[in-house]
Write a structure and sequence with these properties.
This protein is α/β, with parallel strands linked by helices. 37% of the residues lie in helices and 15% in strands. It has an eight-stranded parallel β-barrel with strand order 1-2-3-4-5-6-8-9, surrounded by five helices. Helix 9 packs parallel to helix 10.
Length: 368
């Protein structure tokens, strides 16, 4: 996803001064405890995106098995070329491998994602029309969810349904709404529930966290959608907040707190599903401090409501385009050598300080 450039000096000072009044970033965290053990003491899960590439990355696989209680499959199960090479075929090999790996290591598994506007297969544009879109979507959901029924902790059923497309309800038009209408969301959840009644079914959304007009508006539309779905008896289990944070833009703490309480009042579970903090424009000498502070403050705010805290990626990636100053971007909990960073310590401290989760206690992963 696109990131905005980081504000310089004045903006950075404001960011740091705002954090200065919160609790200490780090406290004494028992180093013998991995993140999952800290989180599970208060009834939470911690997860990270992964995939079948783990078979070629044993060091990363070992870290995930040791530190996390859940993995989300980032690319193997999207409605994309990888899973749907043709309109009539499904390639479950990568997803099957990832799920088997998770289960063999005692980790729970999240499926991502059944219906999205992006990353669609190459054949989609020429094959799908208003006449067959409902059948194509329903068949896809039913086939995929039934294939993994009873083995998946949760599915992101609808991903990023909200956009500024000049509709009063805030719904994104292309492609599913234009083909089917706004009830495509209802259809998707009912189809997924019929295919696996035991899986948690998530309405997942991006960019609702910050104190900007666009994100405040998206948050309001997202809440209206969740409220409408609950009122209409649509089997939504949870709201997923992606939580792609930008260091230069303040989180709307008051607005988010109100939103979280409203979602909780609907009886919906709350999950942090794609957590990361960008370091765009942050001076190289301040990256680790700023990213860690953002992780800590956000978990202080949202963590008390969240049953799952899942991170976008495990470690910093030296292969992505470097920052303008030539350094590797450092948004993750582990560095390029798999070593814990300041952001890891900030997260561990925040997890340790969270209150017990009320209402939605996730099951503990199976023992290895």
């Amino acid at each position: 996803m696109n990131r905005r450039s980081f504000l310089k000096s004045a903006g950075m000072s404001a960011c740091l001064s705002g954090i200065a009044g919160s609790r200490p970033i780090f406290s004494q965290v028992p180093r013998v405890l991995p993140l999952k053990a800290i989180a599970e003491r208060e009834g939470r899960l911690v997860g990270v995106f992964a995939g079948a590439y783990l078979k070629f990355m044993p060091a990363q696989a070992d870290i995930i098995a040791a530190e996390f209680s859940l993995i989300g499959d980032g690319n193997d199960l999207k409605f994309s070329d990888r899973l749907r090479p043709t309109p009539d075929t499904f390639n479950f090999v990568p997803g099957d491998w990832t799920l088997d790996w998770a289960r063999s290591h005692g980790l729970l598994f999240r499926g991502h994602c059944l219906v999205w506007w992006n990353a669609l297969p190459r054949w989609f544009q020429s094959y799908v029309t208003a006449k067959n879109a409902r059948q194509v979507m329903s068949d896809h959901i039913s086939t995929v969810v039934k294939h993994y029924a009873g083995r998946v902790y949760s599915w992101d059923v609808i991903n990023e349904a909200i956009y500024h497309d000049n509709r009063p309800d805030g719904l994104r038009r292309k492609p599913w709404l234009d083909f089917i209408g706004p009830d495509y969301i209802d259809i998707a959840f009912h189809t997924a529930a019929a295919a696996d009644p035991k899986a948690r079914l998530v309405l997942n959304e991006c960019y609702i966290e910050h104190n900007t007009p666009s994100e405040i508006g998206r948050r309001a539309s997202f809440l209206c959608l969740a409220t409408r779905l609950k009122k209409d008896g649509v089997p939504v289990t949870a709201v997923g907040i992606q939580s792609h944070l930008r260091g230069n833009t303040p989180v709307d703490e008051a607005g988010m707190l109100t939103f979280l309480k409203q979602v909780q009042d609907l009886g919906l579970e709350i999950m942090i599903t794609e957590f990361d903090v960008d370091d765009v424009g942050v001076p190289s000498s301040m990256i680790d401090q700023v990213v860690a502070q953002k992780y800590r403050r956000y978990l202080d705010l949202v963590g008390p409501f969240a049953s799952l805290i899942a991170f976008q990626q495990l470690e910093d990636n030296p292969n992505v385009p470097r920052r303008p100053d030539g350094t590797v971007s450092r948004p993750s909990l582990f560095d390029v050598n798999g070593q814990r960073k300041a952001s890891y310590n900030a997260v561990a401290t925040a997890l340790q300080d969270l209150p017990p989760l009320r209402g939605f206690g996730p099951p503990r992963p199976r023992s290895r």
